[in-house]
Amino acid sequence: MQISTTVSDHPVDDARLAEIFANPGFGTYFTDHMLTVEWTPDAGWHAARIEPYAPLSIDPAAAVLHYAQEIFEGMKAYRHPDGSVWSFRPEANAARMARSAERLALPVLPEDEFVEYVDALVRADERWVPTSEGANEKSLYLRPFMFASETFLGVRPSQHVTFMVIASPVGSYFKGGVKPVTIWLTEQYSRAGRGGMGAAKTGGNYAASLVAQQEASAHGCDQVVFLDSTEQKYVEELGGMNLYFVHADGRIVTPATGTILEGITRASIITLAEKMGYTVEERKFSIDEWKDGVASGEITEIFACGTAAVVTPVGELRWDGGSLPSAPVGEVAMELRKQLVDIQYGRADDGHGWMHKIC
Questions:
Q1: I want to staple 48 with a disulfide (CB 3.0 to 4.6 A). Which of 37, 136, 230, 343 is the partner?
Q2: In the record, what terms sit under GO molecular function (predicted)?
């Protein structure tokens, strides 16, 4: 598909860009351009364009504002030592967005077009991809998203849909670098249920987690962990990350998917762990197994992962009336993190075909 391009008349100047790169934060600053593609039943996907980044003009009756028909992805572009720019497993993001679209009754964007559109925006704003040295792990965070843009009040799939890509230079997700996060166990709220949208990357799942995250913050915790909605006994995931439990006998257990998001970092960690000789089990994992395993010493490490935070050690677990002590930063988590980050930033050979060169 042809992509028309309108170059910004007021790009951020080099001095201001250097200031942003010095302290990018996460999701605070955005690049000079954005990409947009539209869909209707008659025309299919059409009107692909790159334009200056700007606020959207949206009708108050746009379906997304009333019925939450919306999905998104999260991925990054990395500057390698030779100056080239790469993304990590973009075809996996494309496939997941297709699954999310099917679950939300949105049109499926072909996977090759998804990758092409993301690449096009990165090339247009290539100067926004920061260099990364040492432990700063700076990158360009990419946010493809799709929403129901039809002006219509009625409960049915939208007949006009908009797909967009925006980008934001970012540093570490958690301030202060890699350190164990404290987790709050919510026993009041659930993130998703059987047959629901838990495996789709849709904003509603994250909206459902926010009140529990407020609960976690009120108890001095960084993140919240959810249990299954049926029996309230099986661990699912954090508000935005998948979990792993390292056992003394060499097993690593991660909760099975179905009602949780199939994380791309999650799948990559499984591959790397198995290559390191660990047996990875994807299965139901109860909160009692977590508590008993830590108490007995059978569980030696716990860590979480996601695109934004990569790999983060889990420390203390708190709940109403109790807590588990904080565990030290584990060697397994840190080795897996190093292997993954070194591949992403071009410091190690990619033996898996995960990296995709953009420019």
A1: 37
A2: branched-chain-amino-acid transaminase activity
